[in-house]
Amino acid sequence: MDRIYLDHAATSPVHPQVVDKMIQVLQGSFGNASSIHSYGREARHLLDESRTVIANSIGASFNEIIFTSGGTEADNFAILGVAEAMKEKGKHIISTSIEHHAVLHTLEYLEEKGYEVTYLQPDETGRISIEDVKASLREDTILVTVMYGNNEVGTVQPIKEIGELLQHHQAYFHTDAVQAYGLVKLDVEDLKVDLLSVSAHKIAGPKGIGFLYMRTGINVKTRLFGGEQELKRRPGTENIASIVGFSEAVKIVQQTIDEKQKQYQTYKKIFIDTLEDEKIDFYVNGSLDYGLPHVLNISFPNTDVESLLVNLDLAGIAASSGSACTAGSIEPSHVLVAMFGRDSERIRNSVRFSFGIANTMEQVEHAAHVVSTIVGRFQGH
Questions:
Q1: Which residues contact residue 227 at a Cβ distance below 8 angstroms, ignoring those fewer than 6 apart?
Q2: Where are the domains of the chain?
Q3: Of the residues 285, 334, 365, 372, which has the maximum number of CB atoms within 10 A of its CB?
Q4: Any catalytic annotation for residue 340?
C-alpha cells in the first residue's frame, strides 16, 4: 500500500539537496565558528553565508537574524525578551486566542508574573479584525503578538495593517510566521514587524533550527547566558550543519514560491471538488479568501475525528486533527473552539490536510477519493 503524507503543516520531509549539504558540512567543516584558526574561519564563513541568505529572504539586514533551536524558542525569546525589557513602560500585551501554544503558554506564564494579556477573538473564518486591535491598544501596551497564518485552519491575519497601526506606538510587534514562511512572500519592512519567528522543518529543512528576526534598535533581554555568539544575543556554539541545511531549504523555497502557491491552491481545489462530486457533507474551516495555500481544514458532519484519523491511517493517508503539538490530547482544538464555540460539532469532526513537497496531483486526487469513501461510510452514503 502506497502511503500518502498530507500533514506538511506538522512537519515536512527534508529535501534531498538539504540532506546533501548537511552531510558535506558534517563530514568536512567541524570547526567552531568562534575559533580564529582556519577550521573556525571556515565554519564562520558558512554561518555568515547562511545568515545572509536568510536575511535577504525577508528583506532584513544581516545582523537582524538570530538563529534559534526552532519556532518555539524564537517565540519565547521574542515575547519574554520584550516583556522583561519593557516592563517599566507597561505590562499590557495584545494577542489572539488562536495562537500556537508556543505563544499562548508563554503569555500564560507572563500573566502569572503580573502582566495583563488581551486575547482577541476571531470571527468564524479564524480572522481577527483590525478594529479590535485598535480598540484594545492602550498607553501601557508594550507588545502585540499575532501569528501570520494559523497552523490549524490556515487563516492569514491582517499583519500589514497591524504593523501600520503600531507605527507611532511604543508597543513592539511580533508575528509567528512559522506556518507562512516559504509559502508566502514576507518583507519585514513592508509588514512593519519588529520581530518574526520561523522554523526550518516546515520548509523541508532540518528539525531543531529556526530564527528570530529582530529589528535593529529593538531592546530585548536575553534569557540565556554563556558566550558571545549571535552578536551576544543567543549564546551557545552554533549548529552549523543545520544552519547550512536551513539556508539551502530557504534557497529552494525562494526559487519555487510562486509555483508552489499555485500548485497547492490547485491541490486544495481538487480535494474540495472531489468531495463535492462524491456528494460528501462537509464544511471548510478557515478562510479560502485569506488562507495559506497548503492548509485545508475540513469539518465532516456525523463523524468522529479520532475514528476518521485511524481509518485514514489504515488506508495509508496521514492527516491530522490540527496542531501536532497537541497530538494525543483529548482537549478539543483551541482554534476551532475560538471560531465556533465549545458546543460546536466542528471541534469533534474536523480534519486538517496539508500539502507539501511529498505530494503529486495524482496523490491528492486519490487521497480525496479515499477520504470520500471513508467519510461516506460514517455519513451513511
A1: 34, 235, 236, 237
A2: 4-12+257-379, 16-251
A3: 285
A4: no
Residues 6+ apart with CB under 8 A from 11: 201, 202, 207, 324
Residue 66: beta bridge partners?
212
Residue 231's pLDDT band, with cuts at 50, 70 and 90, is confident
- Rounded to whole angstroms, the Cα distance separating 85 from 99 reads 22
pTM as predicted:
0.95
Backbone dihedral angles phi then psi of residue 28, each to the nearest 5 degrees: -125, -10
Helix, strand, coil percentages in the chain from 3-state DSSP, rounded to 5:
45, 15, 40
CATH topology for the 16-251 domain: Aspartate Aminotransferase; domain 2 (3.40.640)
- Spatial distance between the Cα atoms of 45 and 225, rounded to a whole number of angstroms: 24
What pLDDT is stored for residue 288 in this prediction?
87
Residue in the block written with cell 472531489: 274
Grid coordinates belonging to 4: 500518502
Query: Which of these is catalytic: 310, 325, 327, 361?
Result: 325
| CA proximity to 134, closest of 99, 188, 94, 191 | 94
Confidence of residue 295 (pLDDT cuts 50, 70, 90): very high
CA distance 55 to 308: 42
Q: CATH classification of 4-12+257-379 is 3.90.1150.10, yes or no?
A: yes
